[in-house]
Design brief:
about 250 residues, alpha/beta, 5-stranded parallel β-sheet, 5-stranded antiparallel β-sheet, 7 helices, 15 strands
């Protein structure tokens, strides 16, 4: 028996979410794991649940659909069916990059066609093709960066966006990373090796096997012992610069 296609619906209009949900429920083999009411919630749910399929409204508050894609691109990009209402500029962009979309209001036949294409792509393990087309779209819009710009993290019962530039220190804790920011500390599920690949090395430096630092926050570096150094941050934190990583900061 084929596994269920785990799906998230993201639309700020309750009636639009209900319409998509009812259409989905006509089809077997699809499980709706969550619904999002705005772009920030959508980015958080995708990051946490990592669905196979995402119905994504283009026009949403907090983050629009393109900004949601930008936020999740470095973490998880499912197969995406974009949903929009008479946005001719967006439709042209979707056509250029061969991305499937639903134009509100859509018919059952059009929904079924889009869903079948998504099924075929997921079944053929071709999600990488959708990812490439989505990244091409983001690049064309000037949104994509080679490095992460923000993290989507759970904070209590909600999701918040944390700008990478606001993080002073990253601390490894098993398969998690603690983000230290002026507003508080947050946890993300990621290894230090994965994080290092996603951050701009000109702005963030690994100073220990379990620590990375925002270079802009460094006030001074002083010798410590046995070839190690001490990194003094502008906010008063003091961190160890291991001799194994000294070349990341020192000539």
């Amino acid at each position: 028996m084929d596994s269920l296609i785990r799906t998230i619906i993201a639309d700020d209009e309750p009636l639009a979410r209900e319409s998509i949900r009812l259409h989905v429920e006509r089809h077997a083999g699809i499980e709706i794991v969550a619904e999002a009411r705005d772009g920030q919630e959508a980015a958080g749910l995708v990051t946490e649940a990592r669905p196979d399929l995402l119905f994504l409204d283009v026009q949403m508050p907090v983050l629009d659909g393109f900004e949601v894609l930008e936020a999740i691109a470095g973490v998880h990009l499912p197969v995406v069916i974009l949903v929009t209402a008479h946005d001719q500029h967006a439709l042209r962009a979707f056509d250029v990059h061969a991305l499937d979309y639903l134009l509100k209001p859509f018919t059952a036949a059009r929904f079924d066609e889009a869903l079948q294409r998504a099924r075929d792509e997921i079944a053929s393990r071709g999600a990488h093709a959708t990812r490439r087309r989505l990244l091409d779209l983001l690049a064309a819009r000037g949104l994509e960066s080679a490095y992460l710009a923000r993290f989507v993290v759970r904070h209590g019962e909600r999701f918040v966006l944390v700008r990478v530039s606001d993080v002073s220190v990253f601390e490894a804790n098993g398969n998690y990373i603690r983000l230290r920011t002026p507003a508080g500390n947050y946890m993300i599920r990621m290894t230090m090796a994965e994080l290092e690949q996603k951050l701009d090395p000109a702005r963030f430096a690994r100073i220990h096997r379990s620590t990375m630092v925002n270079v802009d926050g460094i006030r001074e570096i002083t010798p410590a012992w046995h070839g190690d150094f001490e990194v003094h941050l502008s906010d008063g934190q003091r961190l160890r610069l291991s001799r194994n990583f000294r070349d990341r900061l020192l000539p």
